[in-house]
Write a structure and sequence with these properties.
about 160 residues, alpha+beta, Herpes Virus-1, 6-stranded antiparallel sheet, 5 helices, about 15% strand
């Protein structure tokens, strides 16, 4: 997916973020998930936490780029560009959450399930619109609007045409 965020130039090497929100610890608060500023290394709690220290840090400092420091989460976020991205093979790429969710749900289908068997109103999991997802990425494929990584991920699904 195309990637246009000038703020990645602000990213600095930061130490391991740890496993607590220091601001929450200081006030006796709690947190849900942790984020780390990639400009200065400050750790704060996510927006699902009562005190949203990571967003407050951005508001106070203007440092726009954070990363999740939760296990098995490998994404970054730019507050200014409102963009989620990852580092893959030494470059930054935007995350297409709809694509990623659909790839996961498609992987859960029985191996013999064909795209043609999925009805337009079919959903899977927590009402994920799998047929809409298929139609969206088939159309993007026809229009030439898939990057190489997206096309490769889609083509890795057996018995599917993109």
């Amino acid at each position: 997916m195309s990637f246009d965020c000038p703020h990645v130039a602000l990213i600095q090497p930061v130490p391991d973020g740890g496993s607590v929100c220091p601001s929450c610890v200081e006030i006796g608060g709690t947190w849900v998930n942790l984020r780390q500023c990639l400009v200065c290394g400050q750790v704060g709690c996510c927006d699902s936490s009562p005190d949203t220290h990571a967003t407050r840090h951005f508001q106070d400092t203007g440092h726009p780029v954070i990363r999740s420091i939760m296990p098995d989460e490998h994404w970054m976020w730019c507050y200014i560009c409102n963009l989620q991205f990852q580092e893959r093979a030494g470059r930054y790429v935007a995350v297409d959450a709809f694509l990623d969710a659909g790839l996961w749900f498609a992987s859960q289908l029985p191996p013999a399930t064909s795209i043609a068997e999925i009805r337009p109103d079919d959903t899977v999991g927590h009402d994920f619109p799998l047929r809409e997802w298929v139609a969206t990425y088939q159309e993007r494929g026809r229009q030439g609007d898939l990057d190489d990584d997206q096309r490769a991920a889609l083509e890795a699904i057996p018995d599917r045409r993109w």
